[in-house]
Amino acid sequence: MRPHLLLGITLALFIVRPVCSQPRVDSLMAVSKTAAPDTNKVKLLLKISSLLQGSNVQQSLNFAEQALELARKLNHPVLLVKSLNTTGHIYDYVNLKEKAIMHHQEAIKICEKNDLTRELGDSYNWLGGVYYNRADYAKAEEYWTTALELRIRSGNEKGYAGTLNNLGELQRLKGREYTALGYYKRAIAMNTVLKNDLFLSINWTNIGLVQTTNKNFEEADTAFQKALFFAGKANDVEQSALVYNSFGHMHLKHDNFNAAMKSFEEGLKLATQCGSLVEKASALDGLAQTCRKLNRSNEAYDYLAQFKTVSDTMNDLAKNRQVLDVSIRYDTEKRQRELDQLKTEKSVADLKEQSRMIAIYGLMAGLVLVIFTAGSLFYHNRTRRKLNIQLNERLLEINKSINYAQKIQNTLLANETFIRENIANHFIFFKSKDIVSGDFYWASEVQKRDNSKFQPEGSRGPDSELFYLAVCDSTGHGVPGAFMSLLNIGFLSEAINEKKILDTGQIFNYVRQRLISVLGNEGQKDGFDGILMCFDKTAKTITYSAANNCPVIVNGSEMIELSYDKMPVGVGEKTDHFKTYTLPWQEGATLYLYTDGYADQFGGPKGKKFMYKQLNELIKQNAGQALDKQKEILEGAFNSWRGKLEQVDDICIMGVKL
What we know:
Largest sheet: 6 strands, antiparallel
Number of strands: 13
Strand content: 5-15%
């Protein structure tokens, strides 16, 4: 589900989706043009910026900067801090991180100089949000903890409740569910006093998500019921859609499939009503999963197709967001250059005179170049303005879509507890290049009770307990790679759990066929490279199939590179059937499965690739260490090799001790 943060509280937030009529905004903008340059005008400009945040980010930034400029001239500390924080928040939203940090830090210095405790708490809260959005959770926690103390001291009850919720969300993200619940409950106590229905719904939803994770389904049900009640009181349709989807995922996890269907259907209806792509995708994904559980394959495929359509839309919006970020960054830098230039001149008249003298003594070729450049900039600026009009209405959904995609992927990756129950000794080094990943690891368990035709190669008795483990690299990385991972995981699960195909080679054959049928066969090479292991825990045998990835096993001082098929699971030059290989169960040996991201990383003194040979040597040298230590060594070696260079691909390495 989307993260429930309450970053600003005292200022308008994107997450709260400010609703206003255009006539009201136009009226306020008209008033601002004739208003006297005093403190009331600063407040008016901030109000206009607030109302525009949900519809036109560029205009919102313009009015915030006007408020900031006037607050500086008036030298009004409180309004100057509010203007700095508002402008910094918008810079953070359009990915201008350094400018956002600079504005919030300036606000903190002004607060400290003028003993503004309440505003200082707000500033620290905003700064924590910047680092949270960049996944620097240590700094986010540091600043939010400081903000909490300051808001207690200043009596800012609403801000105090918001920061409590933020800290709870941070703890939930770290897997500290018990600590998170404590923060959420303290936020509920304060929001109950304040009668803040929307934030109460957010707090109860977060509690429901924690209880669902902990499989405390009765407590989760109660929490979601309360969240739904307060969302209704707040008349927030998108929040209601989110709660219904949360209900659906809870019922799905509890194997209450009929209830899950009803919840997801209501979530889809509300998401469509309010136009939330994030919650629409959540509902469609939930409906597809539920239909598969109910063996309603045709409906599942329909919902999955709709989900892919919505996902493609969100992916397109993400690309458009990048275009808009560049546009705002260009306009911001241009305005900054103009301001810097104006500060060095005594007056506008002096600036015009200087320009005239330059024009007179300049070369004609230079003048022609200036005219040509000006015309080009005018054309491109006009094009950007048209594009901004089309994009601004969708900006809110873009950040939500990326964060939601990350949560979907985290949910689909094999649960650490589930893997440990089946293979006690293992480690996983997983590091995505972007927020979401094309690499994935996945597991499933099957209780085989007969010797049917689906039995994998090798001798197995009737009651064999099979455990499947996959490490795979989907086509692409980032959001496109994550969507491919979603399909690949779904088809692997479908092959084993629905079609009862247990032979690893036949599973890869089936997944390849499904990928081609769904994505088409028009030359694109979508699919994955990967390894699928099948551990027969009863017979103590291992079978596996490998597509373009070579598993290795270390026993003592000996390392063996195992056999694999040189073709992908998907469209490739070869379409042979995948082989199923048999591997002896060697007690004490360690099996290593990895994708190509680690070996392909550029770095070192000459900026070259790490290469498989060096990776295997590193693994072999440290195979005798404890598994946790091996992971630490691999991660340290990677960071040292990469240095300041960008990570080139997703990374997934798994070590399994037999």
